[in-house]
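User: Hi! I'm working on a homework problem where we have to compare a predicted structure to a textbook description. Could you give me the structure for the chain below?
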Amino acid sequence: MTIYDLLLTGGRVVDVGGGHVGRYDVAVRGGQIAAVAPALPAGSARDVADVTGHLVTPGLVDLHTHVHPGATYWGIHPDPVAWHSGVTTWVDAGSAGAWGSTRCGPRSGHIGYG
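Assistant: Happy to help. Predicted structure tokens:
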């Protein structure tokens, strides 16, 4: 009987907050984690992915990014990069800050606020 949409098997789960660190299977149903256990039956899922040798983590948070495209030369579009890294939340550390202002920075003739 299929009760899960996806089953990740054999991965090393690192979810300290959830109390799971080690080799676990992770089942997903309706876009949410439905079960985490040392061994879940492969027949219980529509799709099964063997993730042996990979880390399985909850969404990670990157606390220092520059993801305001066009604000500065280092601003990037996060979508093409984030899914490769496991980051689900990015905190922009000032891409639109002082250097992005028209009142200060290298193009204004003075450095600093004001």
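For your comparison, note the following. Confidence is low (pLDDT under 50) at residues 110-114. The helical segments are 79-85. Good luck with the assignment!
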